[in-house]
Amino acid sequence: RRATELAAAGQPATTRDAHRVEVVANIGDVEEARRVPGVGGEGVGLLRTEFVFMERRTAPDEDEQTRIYEAIARALGPDRILVIRTLDVGGDKPLPYMPIGAEANPFLGERGIRLTLNRPDVFRAQVRAILRASSAGRVAMMFPMVATMAEWRAGKELVERERAALGVPAIPVGIMVETAAAALLAERFAREADFFSVGTNDLTQYTLAMDRTNPRLAPQVDALHPSVLHLIERTVSGAHAHGRWVGVCGALAGDLTAVPVLVGLGVDELSADVPIVPAVKARVRTLSLAECQETARLALGAQDGAEVRRIVEERHAQVQ
Ligand code: PEP
Ligand code: MG
Question: Which of 103, 145, 192, 226 is the most buried (most CB within 10 A)?
Fold first, then answer.
């Protein structure tokens, strides 16, 4: 199967009834970026920039970051999109040179965009580096952990200010949907944000109020839980009302059982780990959009993730 998938890897992922789904990759460094074209990745839906900041004593400066983002953009070539996520630390990912005061609940504390908005020097250097690197490819930027319009606007304003100062063309700027707040108000965010990328790992932990790192909860933390699916549906309808696209970059996008549900919910782009990209594309090609829409409807009416999985298994042949 793997050989067949790889042979077809360069072809688009189109359903039997001619619906195209973009299949892109999640990456965490330059080396992974180089592997994306070979597996048929149509771009990068999530570059986790934490690697640039981890395991060092001081923050990387603007020039150093520019060189790294440029190298990644060049590895992808001029036609593949590169969605760069701004720094997402805090929560379970602390940094020695960005100390956060003691927090009773770090996952509900100063993390993602909340943290970078409080460290404008670090945020500004990263935003400038992303903007400077944007001439090397098809670069977009997104903010993690957005919960309020005020956070989005503050981030977007900083981008616009630096863009004007640098005198470079505008690039698409979007938000990650990882909180119920962002999903429920997606229609309002979509008036201003260029795109959405659903981070199902965090969206699931916050919706179910179950820590994604707690091994005892692991069997229950299922991103196919209908409550999460309702939030994805809401995100898609809010986005599409304003002509914005929606990707999924959480682990759910690489779960072959979830693919028919996500396609049926109208998700435009699936971003999976590099080695899984060919299998996700192959899975899309076995599907029909009309059947997936019915699957999604049934999944939204299910009572838990296990029932959603049963519905998919009954309706769609498993990839062997
Ligand atoms: C997510 O939360 O689904 C996501 C893609 O971000 P991370 O896993 O890096 O928190
Ligand atoms: Mg996340």
Answer: 145
Judged by its nearest atom, the ligand closest to the C-alpha of residue 273 is 1
Q: Out of 27, 32, 83, 88, give the residue to mutate to test ligand 1, the one with the largest number of ligand atoms within 8 Å of its CB.
A: 88
Ramachandran assignment for 174, one of left (phi > 0), alpha (psi -120 to 50 degrees), beta (any other):
beta
- Ligand 1, closest atom to CA 202? 2
Cα of 131 from ligand 1 centre, angstroms = 23
Amino acid at the residue 179 = T
**ipTM for the complex shown:** 0.99
Tally DSSP H helices, then E strands, for the chain: 15, 9
Please state the pTM of the whole predicted model.
Answer: 0.97
- Give CA separation, 285 vs 168, 224, 282, in Å: 39, 21, 5
**Residues that place a CB less than 5 A from ion ligand 2:** 199, 202
